[in-house]
Write a structure and sequence with these properties.
about 525 residues; alpha+beta; three-stranded parallel beta sheet; three-stranded antiparallel beta sheet; 12 strands; disordered N terminus
């Protein structure tokens, strides 16, 4: 009884901070008692949630990051087909993408998690791994033959090794898996405006700056460059042009492996990081970067693109089809295209490095204690089959795709397939089908991707240090204050509220807040780890 009461309290807490859709996903209301939660209601999956109607069907629940561009629908084709083909009902608990990180942490810390935490990378479960909160996926590969075969066939061993913790295990299922290394988060630009103003396609970051200046002069009310997903998105991309990680790829503590020196370097204290922030400051101070670049939600962001208020962006290649559809309904000349990432001062491409996969599913360790655990593993393993890759990427033949010349093609290439059907959905596609690039992208984007592949534009991931529980405890004495300070100051350098004349003072303060202690820790661990 205490357990069910605790669950109801947690459910009420979640209701108080999440949208109605989240609450609907987390609970099953009793129709007979005016909507109060029954004692059996839980965020857990499995048979327990179905006892009230006598249905013993396996139910698996997922904490789902709900994108404003393709909001969750209960009747999505993808959910119906997963249930039809596996016999398992996948129930989504939608959380608005804008609140994802905060609410995911709240639910993880509550201890009462759904069966799958979607859109979660290895470093985001790292702090919990040693506490036994998440399932060590690597322990169960023998029970997941499809995943094991996929890992071997497409060479995932090295990338998953980088996700291992100090205990030698990895704690996520790889999601958005591809058969070759690529990063389709890249640059887009208005080709029609380049043509109108007789401008060449930018090849360097300086070119991007100069094109943006021309656009600003021609359209003073426009902010040429835009960004969504807050600090992490654009800064991940631009920082790489300066030869350093940034944004999502720079851990909060700021340390990153440097191959030349074979040690871990505090990136925010480097001259390259300063040059990167100076570039961002130039964009901001000249009105070339949307001043809301840290706060734009997806709806506003896409509206501004369609209305020609923003002209250069870093986004998922493939979205250009939708943006052109929406933009051309307003301006028939509207034409946004993908571009090969520009290079920085030393020839580094401004695009984030990447693993063969781009997201992960984290599974609560308590799942292993369930009677239906073997069925759940079988369900997870199914997602790495060819059948699942076709379904989650393309949907159903005759409804969403057709087969021509032995390749899968969209029946309606411009349809909003994710919003309408739930397919080609980041959180629901553990394995992308190999045909998705050529089926989904515009001809220009395909050519850009081919050029990027030929030039080996996208770098692989680099090693990280794997800390024990004691080492994590030592790390925690410094990392929060250091992270908060260096992120806050980075934003201030960009918006000009902090002068670059104070750069040395900033670096010194980082050292005082723990950079010195963490440098010693990480490099000692690295020397032990690599030997």
């Amino acid at each position: 009884m205490k357990k069910s009461i605790l669950r109801r309290c947690i459910a009420l807490l979640i209701v108080s901070v999440m949208l109605l859709g989240l609450a609907a996903g987390c609970s099953q209301d009793s129709k007979e008692d005016g909507g109060e939660n029954d004692d059996k209601v839980t965020t857990k999956g499995g048979k327990e949630g179905k006892e009230e109607d006598g249905d013993d069907q396996l139910v698996v629940t997922m904490l789902y990051s709900d994108n404003a561009s393709y909001q969750y629908k209960e009747d999505w084709l993808i959910l119906e087909e997963i249930e039809k083909r596996t016999g398992v009902k996948l129930e989504l608990i939608p959380v608005p993408e804008s609140d994802w990180a905060t609410k995911r942490t709240t639910i993880i810390n509550s201890g009462d998690m759904p069966d799958i935490i979607s859109k979660t990378l290895s470093h985001e479960v790292s702090d919990y791994a040693t506490s036994g909160l998440f399932l060590p996926i690597s322990d169960y590969l023998d029970s997941m033959p499809n995943l094991s075969a996929f890992i071997e066939e497409f060479g995932y061993e090295d990338d998953l090794d980088l996700a291992r913790e100090a205990d030698g295990k990895f704690y996520i299922l790889p999601v958005n898996c591809k058969e070759s290394r690529m990063n389709n988060m890249s640059w887009m630009i208005r080709q029609d405006l380049l043509d109108k103003h007789d401008l060449e396609m930018p090849k360097t970051l300086d070119d991007v700056l100069n094109v943006a200046r021309v656009f600003k002069e021609a359209y003073p009310d426009v902010y040429p460059i835009t960004n969504r997903f807050q600090w992490g998105n654009m800064t991940t991309t631009i920082a790489r042009g300066f030869g350093i990680p940034g944004g999502w790829q720079l851990p909060g503590h700021g340390f990153y492996y440097d191959q030349d020196s074979d040690d871990f370097v505090f990136i925010p204290g480097t001259e390259e990081y300063k040059a990167f922030l100076e570039y961002m400051n130039t964009l901001y101070s000249e009105g070339l970067l949307d001043p809301e670049y840290l706060t734009l939600d997806s709806n506003v962001y896409e509206q501004r693109i369609a209305n020609s208020q923003n002209l250069i962006l870093c986004d998922w290649v493939g979205n250009d089809i939708r943006y052109n559809r929406d933009g051309q309904s307003i301006d028939s000349e509207f034409n946004i295209v993908a571009m090969v990432p520009p290079t920085g001062p030393n020839g580094d491409y401004a695009i984030g490095n990447t693993a063969l996969y781009s997201q992960g599913w984290a599974i609560p360790a308590s799942t292993a204690e369930r009677e239906d655990f073997s069925e759940i593993l079988e369900f997870f393993d199914w997602f790495y089959t060819e059948e699942a890759a076709v379904l989650t990427t393309f949907g159903v033949e005759g409804i969403t795709y057709k087969v021509e010349n032995d390749t899968l093609q969209w029946i309606d290439k411009e349809a909003n397939k994710t919003a309408d059907y739930g397919i080609f959905n980041n959180c629901l596609t553990p394995r992308f089908h190999r045909d998705y690039l050529y089926a989904d992208w515009a001809d220009n984007s395909i050519e850009v991707y081919k050029e990027m592949k030929e030039k080996d534009v996208v770098p692989p991931l680099v090693p990280s240090v794997k800390l024990t529980a004691d080492q994590k405890e030592f790390e925690s004495m410094y990392v929060t204050a250091l992270a908060d300070y260096q992120w806050t100051m980075a934003a201030k350098f960009v918006d000009g509220s902090e002068s670059f004349d104070n750069w040395d003072a900033f670096v010194d303060e980082c050292e005082k807040k723990g950079a010195a202690e963490l440098r010693e820790l990480y490099n000692e661990v690295w020397q032990e780890q690599k030997n």
